[in-house]
Amino acid sequence: MTADLSYDTTRREIATEAGVLRYHEAGEGPPLLLLHGSGAGVTGWRNFRGVLPAFAAHFRCLILEFPGFGISDDFGGHPLLTAFDAVVRFVDALGLDTVDILGNSMGGGVAINYALAHPERVRRLVTIGGIGLNIFSPGPAEGIRLLQEFVDDPTRERLIRWLHSMVYDPAVVTEELIEERWRHATDPETLAAARRMYGKEAFTQLTKAMESSPGPQPWAVMHRLTAPTLITWGRDDRVSPLDMALIPMRTIPNAELHVFPKCGHWTMIEAKDAFETVVLAFLLRKGTAR
């Protein structure tokens, strides 16, 4: 089975009114939507290729590539907002009644927004870091600041510094990983979209707009989530520090929190085996009540 789960054999695409969405599909069973995070050179495939065999043994895995990250068409606008729109279009286009969602960092935030807007369509939800609010740690965190520096003035040295902030174990940052991320992150269209999200000026403007918004902040509406939720976090996350988990852990009604030791932002990569065990146990558990 693993031999068949290559980039090319799993790659699919589907047309929407806003543009073409590309994704990877593997496995059979209940649909599991996997939503990637943000950052330099990120794709859904790179986030989840390592855990795909384990999840595809139980689920119809759908790894969506968000607009603005160099694989799906760029819908324009802020990548975070178009990501939510893309999920709505994607689930509708595939005719999925209900889904489980596994969201990494930004993908977790998108997943929560989707579950709030469409509670009847989300069975269970898993997040990887990236949600909540800095309580004890300063913001933006080290990893975000390093990402901003790279996006505004991309060099290999800045990329490497940012990649090291994503992990606990420096050995994870291989030359192959650096080269793979560098090629994709410096593509002109991908870089332009990243600057709409993480350029210092754009990031500052977005932060001010959110602070002055008349509506509630994203972290303040998590109590409305009805889907059973597993919050996962790397104890040594330098992109979204662990104290961010406190508000979602306390306010999401049916939330569980699992923290992986000696692990940074990429729990599905650095704590791969433990992550697979914990998440599969949650998703396959019988009788989880809303």
Give a written overview of the molecule.
The protein is of the alpha/beta class and about 290 residues long. It has one domain (about 1-135, about 215-285): Rossmann fold, CATH 3.40.50.1820. The protein has 13 helices and eight strands. It has helices at about 5-10, 45-50, 50-55, 80-95, 105-115, 140-150, 155-165, 175-185, 190-200, 200-210, 245-250, 265-270, 270-285, and strands at about 10-15, 20-25, 30-35, 60-65, 100-105, 120-130, 230-235, 255-260. Strands 1-2-4-3-5-6-7-8 form an eight-stranded mixed sheet, sandwiched between helices. Strand 5, helix 5 and strand 6 form a beta-alpha-beta unit. Helix 6 packs antiparallel against helix 7 (about 155-165). The longest helix has 15 residues, at about 80-95. The model has no long low-confidence stretch (mean pLDDT about 95). GO terms for molecular function: hydrolase activity. This is Alpha/beta hydrolase. It holds the Pfam family Abhydrolase_1. Keywords: Hydrolase.
